[in-house]
Amino acid sequence: xxxxxxxxxxxxxxxxxxxxxxxxxxxxxxxxxxxxxxxxxxxxxxxxxxxxxxxxxxxxxxxxxxxxxxxxxxxxxxxxxxxxxxxxxxxxxxxxxxxxxxxxxxxxxxxxxxxxxxxxxxxxxxxxxxxxxxxxxxxxxxxxxxxxxxxxxxxxxxxxxxxxxxxxxxxxxxxxxxxxxxxxxxxxxxxxxxxxxxxxxxxxxxxxxxxxxxxxxxxxxxxxxxxxxxxxxxxxxxxxxxxxxxxxxxxxxxxxxxxxxxxxxxxxxxxxxxxxxxxxxxxxxxxxxxxxxxxxxxxxxxxxxxxxxxxxxxxxxxxxxxxxxxxxxxxxxxxxxxxxxxxxxxxxxxxxxxxxxxxxxxxxxxxxxxxxxxxxxxxxxxxxxxxxxxxxxxxxxxxxxxxxxxxxxxxxxxxxxxxxxxxxxxxxxxxxxxxxxxxxxxxxxxxxxxxxxxxxxxxxxxxxxxxxxxxxxxxxxxxxxxxxxxxxxxxxxxxxxxxxxxxxxxxxxxxxxxxxxxxxxxxxxxxxxxxxxxxxxxxxxxxxxxxxxxxxxxxxxxxxxxxxxxxxxxxxxxxxxxxxxx
Length: 582
Known about the structure:
single chain; alpha/beta; Gyrase A, domain 2; Rossmann fold; Isoleucyl-tRNA Synthetase, Domain 1; five-stranded parallel β-sheet; four-stranded antiparallel β-sheet; 15 strands; 54% helix; 10% strand; globular
């Protein structure tokens, strides 16, 4: 455990010294881990529960907390130690927060600490969009979550490899190509070809559903199988069409990733795993390591309540599981990773249980280091989205609509003050911030109901509210330039709202560390929202421009600047931009 929080470390050392005076001992790690924030900040900055000492001292925790309070040494940093039932509440001075926290935030060193122990080199695979479909708002939860995990863990000091695994093979591709070649009458558009492929896929599904139960159904199934065989064999007219149209989809993906400021260390494609994985499964079957069921090859896991893991269909074509088996081996061999995390929605839980179990049975030692990070999906107010049915909100349309809303609702008043480039930039930043924050603030096990107007609000728990708070601080810094050479008298920051802000700032790295360990970026969203709220209280209760005492004004400006830097770094950890003006 890395004791990175200097205020907690100071508390730990003071409590340790007091316990030693009492003739007892408790490791610094035990003390540090036992420190919590009191339910009310007026009670103190940190609280230490005395339960672990009760057995050794043969006394009740309330009695022990009183004895520690008597033995603890206060000074200019720790100004109060008070027993409150089984807890010891500690209060630190503005000087302690200023010297030990705020000053390091201002010089940037606070954000460069390693806050988690070194861990196995880990690959995080996320954003697995299918080619020949359109990217929609539902895809953003995966993209935002995976990107935030990569950023959080790297910030915390972990070695992370990011990867994506687009689905450029499979029945969905065959359906799209089938419709294009046999039923489509319109030429592809000059631009937006990736989005257009999505409409071809939806039309294919509607036609196939209409023809279900007719003599045409068996013919359609045979044609789709033939297309898949051409793709696997890498020859034929459908394979040529696939090569061309696949690039349209990849171009669309890359444009989305560029907009989102997401980069991957590794791009894997299903097509790269398709033929080799099928050949490997056939080899494993020949070696007696797999079995047949109704003509399909796989592994029977029914005794473990995991059903039959199908790896080759009776027509000889592979499935997702087939490719994931081989991909798992590639990941560990290609990048010498020690852990593999798959960010995929909860509907694929059985799939990954089957894949990991089959890998284990086949003797793949790293199977135990494969982890499925599940999340719930995104719905529209009127229900679930489906590319197959065509009831989606295309991502590019969404972004355009959100940017237009921001320009109309928030930025119209700046038309004569800002350049069009500035207006376009801020509109893009706010739209992106709204999407990323909206996707990340809800715990991964809960559904998200997408509501554009709610997500774009400047008040309440939204990305734009946090961005606006940062922009307000930036504006403050431009209006009242702080004298960086002047030594700040932190002891002047005695107002309750100033103290609450300083308390909050000291907890940023702890919030990121906890979020990283638990794979839950929602905790950082909550932290930033609370910090922005506390700043707005401070802004109204502690005037800066009107403050006549220059030393107080400098201290408040420094505190505001530290909040701005923390908001900016916090948003960066979530993949959100931090506008300088709004």
